[in-house]
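Late entry, 2'-deoxycytidine-5'-triphosphate complex.
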Amino acid sequence: MRHIIHADLDAFYAAVEQLDNPDLVGKPILVGGRPENRGVVATASYEAREFGVHSAMPMRTAVHRCPQGIIVPPRFSRYKEKSGEVMSIFRDLTDLVEPLSMDEAYLDITDVVEAGEKPLAVALDLKRRIFEKTGLIVSVGVGTCKTIAKIGSDLDKPDGLVVVQPGDEEAFLAPLAVNKLWGIGPKTAERLHRENIETIGQLADQPLEWFASMFGKRAESVRDKSLGRDVEAVHVHGVSKSISSETTFTNDIGDEAELRDVVERKAVRVAHSLERNGLKGRTVKLKLRLADFTTFTRQFTLPYHTSDEEPIKEAAWSLLVAELEPGRTFRLLGVGMANFGDDSELETPHIQQLPLFFNEDTH
Ligand code: DCP
Ligand code: MG
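Prediction complete; structure with ligand written out below:
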């Protein structure tokens, strides 16, 4: 079973403006162009939304509805910077992150849940970390497919958290309006309205043939979504340069056996992520943070590309052993793999004869 999070920041541009200028906190903010320049609202703080202001509205209309609104010109480079901070916190949790825009992303947390974490705890922890590290508030939806996660994150905004338990998908969606489904725009909603279909439940109740006549090629996908069981994967865009898994401990760890255990679990996670993404790597990285927050990485390059657990475990552990000192404790440990490629042009027996580590480029 898959576990997916959809996370979307609240009133993103406005929240960044309030963060950088405390005078704006708690006030109606209209981020966008001036009304005299035919500006539009990029976003409004929740305080301004109470007056019926929303994104894409002409600023002239917004000012009319909310005369006390404070107009703030957008600062895109600052939003991009904050977005980067948020995305990197998402990637601390899982490598399977699919950003949809500057302020929202899908995260596949299946591995994290299979490692024993409860989805609710993962979501709460993510919200807390985003707030502590960036000062921004994120709304989160959690479920077994993208449809559920996406709808969930929007349902309880701002500062939302909706977790739909496996098995509850259909009942969760049933009472909601059809236009909440991804891919049902105003035109389709109008066609459905003419057939007296207003809710996702009414849509899901239709026979298969009806879906075929209504949606053609999309029939199956729309039906799956209406039942909360779409199978769409979280797509990691672009070519990632490394895959890693790291944890900050609640209490710093110095015990060798405990550290060994963490390294092994991280290595398994990395191996799984590599496999999921169809990648093999050669450079194993170990990231460490000490009790005094000093952070550094060590790396080993293997003689061949691999996605196997064993060499990753072995390399990461040998790097860590070199850093153990009596009394030294660690607050963060991460294992990663970089230098992706494939050795399929080489013959396997030849590769297997190579020693495990032939090039130690630790620094
Ligand atoms: N945005 C924009 N123009 C739009 C919609 C959005 O410029 N028509 C920008 C401003 C938003 C950001 O994108 O801050 C994120 O879009 P969201 O739809 O997620 O809206 P917000 O984050 O502002 O509000 P919320 O997600 O709380 O509804
Ligand atoms: Mg948002």
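Confidence is low (pLDDT under 50) at residues 345-363. Will revisit in the morning.
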